[in-house]
Amino acid sequence: MTSRNLNFKHRVAVVGAGLTLFRSRLQETPQELAWLAARQALDEAGLTLKDIDCVVIGSAPDTFDGVHMKGEYLAEGAGGIHKPTVRVFVGGATGVFVPIAAWWHVASGLCKRVLAVAEEKMSHAAKPHPQYVFRYIWDPIVEKPLNPNLIWIFAMEMHRYMYKCNVKKEDIALVSVKNKRNACGHPSAQLCMPNITVDDVLKSEVLVWPVQLYDISPTSDGAAAVVLASEEEARRITDTPVWIKGIGWTLDTTHWTNRDLAFPEYVRRAAEMAYRMAGIDNPRKQIDVAEPYDPFDYKELHHMEGLGLARKCEAPVLTREGVTQRDGDLPINPSGGLLGVGNPIAAAGLMKVAEIFWQLRGEAGARQVKKPVYTGLAQAWGDLMQAGTVIVMGI
Amino acid sequence: MSGVTKPLNPRGTKYERADFPVFEFPVVGKARYNYTTGEALGRFLAGLKEGKILGTYCSKCGRVFVPPRMYCSYCFREVDGWLEVRDEGVVVTAVMSYISATRARLERPVAVGVIKLDVPGRQFDDHFFPGLMHYICGAAEEDVKSMRIFGAKVKARWKPPEQRTGSITDIECFEVVRP
């Protein structure tokens, strides 16, 4: 696979990754969490902070941690003091946007070794509930006066998808079951549920029909980090670099009531950009393992279709046939995803990139997919169903 | 391939296990926002007060914008003018909410959805259409849960004129029109 994008100077590789535990409430401060993940990523790469030229930080709304200027605040624990440091933010899509931004730092020739850190502490927004702060993403004039709950829009998207593709809730619940079971192989996981069944999902608390409690990922605290390096540096650092082959990102309009929610156009466009760069023209055949964003179970299916890993309305069929299981032909979310490992927003997206890194290096141990894997993909999504971020990695 | 499972010993202290006090900062004040409505939405809200749903249109691409914008974000030019859309349309998606904005259980669930609004003389596909989120009334729980409500004709139920304030809530809900 050769790159068709000639507008960058350096190939870029991931050479180390680190994670904290993901839990509904952790004692550590956001800075401490960022440090724990960053330190592990540096250790894995065999580097110290002195080796790092630039730092990229990602975190979702300031309102979760309850600290303003979260990038500046996290810089302390993320190794960003006295270095060119920047924070990026595209809502829930941030986690995958962090390595994308780190990529262009290196690809441009500006920095040789970059530390990329993502952190989220949802539990700080304790009262009345962490999701209440999502209130501020709605349009203040035409939406907020209706007193919306964030789950409304996802329920509307899920229902529209079910309607257009004639999908049953039982089929969607299979995703939740798969991911919460997969999570049992992940040392950071918050929701390992080895015996969960479709029936458990369908009997869980109804929040906003068709969304029930086990259709959603939990609120979480946690951090993740990766180290990126230019080709020359990467070959010095490790014998097994994982190359970033393609990146893509797109935004759609915040006016989500004006467009069809059955298909994630924002993901399709981001994927096309990444595939063009990675030289991928048949993702279903050329991607060996993928971590699409799964804060809700239907979202994994929706995103598989947006990514071209399934045809429109085909993802539920592949799931039912077992294709997406860890030992299947196209393992999807072998980490356990957000549904199983947890959803500290930006950190959860970067956890997916770390998972592809470990899967491609054969270091996922208990959750290593069965088939040999050479090319993987991670994707995140965010804002008012509008932001898509995609990264394609290969060995 | 090594026998280990990455990440190795991820760190973090579960809150319940913390053996020293945790600092909780009480709310000491609330920042309150006073949003401006802007050119387009300002006129939209004024229209609602008069019982009209107003939109803008772009003659270049043919899009009709409800909620209205003062610019066409696709052609990136100023819109060509205003039009009144019907206060009725069809349900493109609907859900049944059992929780409030604060995630408390509601005593009675409410139906909400997206309504694709009718514009005289114009047709829109599913990819871009004038549409609003609002409450849906006159539908049974089962109509929503079974998706029978999809495609149903609905019409705005307005508050009495003297109670309208120039808000999206001047429309109480979109009511299912029985044939």
Q: How would you portray this structure in words?
A:
The complex is a heterodimer of chains A (395) and B (179). Chain A has 395 residues and is α/β, with parallel strands linked by helices. Chain A has one domain: Peroxisomal Thiolase, Chain A, domain 1. Chain A has 14 helices and 11 strands. Chain A has a 9-stranded mixed beta sheet, with helices on both faces. A two-stranded antiparallel sheet of chain A has the order 5-6. In chain A, helix 6 (169-182) packs across helix 11 (297-306). Chain B is mainly β and 179 residues long. Chain B has one domain (38-176). Chain B is built from 2 helices and 10 strands. In chain B, 35% of the residues are buried. The chains are: A alpha/beta (395), B mainly beta (179). Chains A and B meet through strand 1, helix 1, helix 5 and strand 5 of A and helix 1, strand 6, strand 7 and strand 8 of B. Strand 5 (206-209) of chain A pairs antiparallel with strand 6 of chain B, so a sheet runs across the interface.
Given as residue ranges, the uncertain stretches of chain B (5+ residues, pLDDT < 50) are none
State the strand order across the main sheet of chain B: 6-7-8-10-9
Work out the count of structural domains of chain A: 1
Distance between the termini of chain A: 10 Å
Q: Proportion of β residues of chain A? A: 15-25%
Q: Can you give the mean pLDDT of chain A?
A: 95
Class from helix and strand fractions of chain A: alpha/beta
Order of helices and strands of chain A: EHEHHEHEHHHEEEHEHHEHHHHEE
**What is the CA-atom radius of gyration of chain A, in angstroms?**
19 Å
